[in-house]
Amino acid sequence: MTTTSEQTPVIKPPPRLGRSIRRNPIALKELRGRMRGPRAFIVLTVYVVLMSLFAVILYLIYAASSSITLNTTGGVIGKIIFAGVVAIELFLVCFVAPAFTAGSISGERERRTFHLLRTTLLPARRIVVGKLISALAYIILLLAVAIPLQSLAFLMGGITVEEVVLSVEILIVTAIGYGAVGIFFSALTRRTLVASILTYTFALMVTIALPLGAGIIGLFSPSSIGYYNHPVAEAVVSYLYTLVAATNPVSAAVGTELILQQQGSAFYYTEVLSNGAILPMLSPWVVFTVFYLGLAFILVLITVNQVRHIDE
After folding, report:
1. In a domain, 43, yes or no
2. What is the pLDDT of residues 2-55, one digit of tens each?
3. Mean pLDDT across the chain
């Protein structure tokens, strides 16, 4: 008597990120809907073309205003192109990424489809995380396709690998933070319009108001008003100024770039107080990353709790 055993095929598990997306039906459904059809690829193509034209225009403007040859000014042109591309991407993240998350929960309530999500017996955590992942995936894809444009600055010189890596890191962290803010207001309000207004108000406050506040603090810093006999107060104001500046993606990026140029350090730097003491400081991108990821984590937890108590 012979027995036959069925051979079970061995299936290799997908990567961790792909596995988490596959296990979340909300993220999978949203991503398939967003990438289905030619619209997503048309947007990507137009985005890359416009970014490329912008880089070419920056080069032509600088070349027309300078009589020096390319070989002697390549580093300057590389920095200008790199800064212009990163600035456009940062604008995209700050003012376009919230649009993908501000209507994620409120839109379901407006369309009277939120109860369908609850009947699937999916926990609120998977609903919120799935909505957030699907909204951020397309933004990160837009950032990824622009990385070769940033790398073009290497052909001109003046840009290091650290600058490219830190710029991408700041952009991704900004997308996560602003996306979490958008989905928080989307769960807090019943209307997408109200959620969008609150989200963009937050974006304007962080992008414009905080740099102005940091500038005011800098004007009244001990070193500016002559309190050279109070090193403790000077150190406190220096740390406060760095903290306020690091909560803004623009000032964090600019501050990180200045520190890389002046001290050549990507993680920490030092300041000399009026009495000659050395004050150790963290690089702005480090404080910025910790602050925004912590804020995003807290907002996601609050959003999950809010979704659990939504009663249609």
Report:
1. yes
2. 444 444 444 444 445 555 566 777 777 777 777 777 777 887 888 888 888 887
3. 76
* Mean pLDDT in residue range 260-287: 77
Number of domains present in the structure of the chain: 1
What are residue 288's phi and psi, to 5 degrees? Answer: -60, -45
Q: Six-digit token pair at 283?
A: 């690089």
Tokens of 65: 């205003």
Print the domain residue range for 199.
17-308
User: pLDDT at position 300, please?
Assistant: 92
Per-residue pLDDT averaged across 231-237, rounded?
A: 73
Q: Is residue 77 part of a domain?
A: yes
**Interatomic CA distance for residues 244 and 258, integer angstroms:** 17
Do residues 302 and 184 touch, judged by C-beta distance below 8 A? yes
Q: Name the residue type at position 234.
A: E
Domain for residue 7, yes or no?
no
CA separation for the pair 19, 43 (Å, rounded): 27
Any domain includes 131: yes
